[in-house]
Design goal:
The chain has 2 helices and 27 strands. The chain is mainly beta and 454 residues long. The strands form 8 sheets. Strands 7, 10, 11, 12, 13 and 14 form a 6-stranded antiparallel β-sheet that branches. The chain has a 4-stranded antiparallel β-sheet with strand order 3-4-5-6, with no helix packed on it. Strand 4 and strand 5 form a beta hairpin. The radius of gyration is 29 Å and the shape is globular.
Length: 454
């Protein structure tokens, strides 16, 4: 009977291989033990010690102090609703009307005098010469920088009164009132399918405020000038327009995930709609010579606006290519143009594994968490997505000078809800997020928007 003999080298290789297999088996066994000690993937966490109020809306009313979604002057006092319909709605913000510091004041719109305060309305047709197709609008206030020249008198607080049109200024012939010289930037769109054309209009106007800077302040009059037509842009609509404090940078969006800007030259007149002739994706800001003093592209110290100071990056730090689609919506920019805020999430509580279910409502709908109705449910909730907002209105984020170009989600009550639940009582849910059952295991969720849809 023959025997197999191994050379010394073969014995050593066999021993090394056996050790390797032993260590691999031991590592697998250790990993299996660790995984067994962890909660199952479907097991919910324990309730937190502190639970925050995240529903924010109760029976159509705010549960916390709030500020309406207005486009405001540089001093933050005169605002306009950017989406008002047949009338342009002006509202005064009056911190003097608060009964306490803002975060400890009464729930609701106390900063404008209360939830029931009516706006000052002006016919929107005064702000463009078009018969139809009036879209969204914003204020442009480029006159608020005080000058070094003064009229030689002091205001009620003993401060020199600036000369000229620094907003606000004492109204001519009525020094007890404040006046603001502003420009309304209005958008016009034909409202026709397959017609991609949107025109800007600019109209100068003056707002007169009686009893300014008091809790009794009110808008007394709005005098409107002659509308000026700006360029026509090949987009179906210019939505969410907003200008910076210097009146030379205008932002907007055309679709749900298409945010852009238009910038006027350094020496061009402020708030002039005829200067906004080109549009660019916001990812182009860092590469755009027009966003730098003297066209010094890439020099952060020469950037006219903070959103151009650094190249845009996504949430994990990857560079977004020049003119690349940023994939966010509903933009808002600060007055200096340093930081742009946006929304980015269109998640829903219900989902369907069958893609056809989103359009026809068939198939089996599933919920991301167990849910129950807080008071009562909509007729069809739990059957289709008809009860949820499918637009990317959640996930408030920011990019710009503060984040060095990186896009980040904001960790505060701006992001109180991930899902598209509405603001009616029948949209208020209780989601079971934690173990143990009972009231501590569920969280009451409310609207992804305010009582007015903001």
């Amino acid at each position: 009977m023959s025997k197999t003999r191994f050379a010394p080298q073969q014995h050593e290789k066999a021993a090394v291989g056996a050790k390797r297999w032993w260590w691999m088996a031991a590592a697998i066994a250790h990993l299996a033990a660790l995984l067994a000690a962890l909660p199952a993937a479907a097991e919910l966490p324990l309730p937190p010690l502190l639970k925050r109020d995240v529903h924010l809306i109760d029976r159509g009313k705010h549960t916390r102090p709030a500020i309406p979604a207005l486009r405001v002057t540089n001093d933050g006092r005169v605002g306009v609703d950017p989406t008002s319909g047949g009338q342009i709605e002006f509202t005064l913000l009056k911190p003097e009307a608060l009964d306490a510091p803002f975060d400890r004041s009464r729930p609701g719109y106390g900063v404008i005098g209360g939830d029931g305060v009516a706006p000052f309305n002006v016919d929107r047709k005064l702000f463009h010469n078009a018969d139809k197709g009036f879209g969204q609008h914003t204020l442009c206030d480029a006159t608020s920088k005080t000058t070094t020249d003064y009229v030689g008198e002091l205001d009620d607080d003993g401060r020199p009164v600036p000369y000229g049109t620094a907003n606000p200024y004492r109204c001519p012939g009525d020094p007890a009132a404040d006046c603001y010289d502003l420009t309304m930037i209005a958008t016009q769109m034909p409202g026709l399918r397959n017609v991609h054309e949107s025109r800007l209009w600019g109209t100068r106007f003056t707002v007169k405020v009686r009893s300014p800077k008091t809790r009794w302040a009110r808008i007394e009059s709005v005098e409107v000038g002659t509308p000026v037509a700006g360029p026509s842009h090949e987009i179906i609509a210019w939505l969410n327009p907003q200008a910076t404090a210097d009146g030379r940078l205008l932002i907007g969006r055309a679709y749900q995930r298409n945010v852009f800007y238009s910038v006027a030259g350094e020496d061009e007149p402020a708030c002039d709609v005829t200067t906004w002739t080109e549009r660019h994706e916001v990812s182009h800001a860092h590469h755009d010579p027009g966003m730098y003093v003297g066209g010094a592209v890439g020099d952060p110290s020469q950037a006219r606006y903070g959103i151009a100071r650094y190249p845009m990056r996504d949430g994990v730090g990857n560079l977004v290519r020049d003119h690349g689609l940023a994939r966010f919506s509903y933009p808002w920019i600060d007055k200096a143009g340093d930081n742009m805020f946006f929304t980015s999430i269109d998640a829903t509580l219900l989902y369907n594994r069958d893609p056809a279910g989103y359009s026809v409502g068939d198939g089996t709908w599933e919920s991301r968490y167990p849910w129950s109705c807080h008071r009562y449910c909509g007729v069809h909730f739990g059957e289709t997505l008809e009860e949820e907002d499918l637009q990317p209105r959640r996930g408030v984020g920011v990019f710009g000078a503060w984040t060095r170009g990186r896009t980040l989600l904001v960790d505060n009550l701006n992001n109180h809800l991930d899902y598209g639940l509405g603001h009616g009582d029948y949209h208020e849910m209780r989601l079971t997020l934690y173990r143990g059952g009972g009231p501590d295991a569920s969280v009451r969720t409310g609207a992804a928007a305010g009582p007015d849809g903001d």
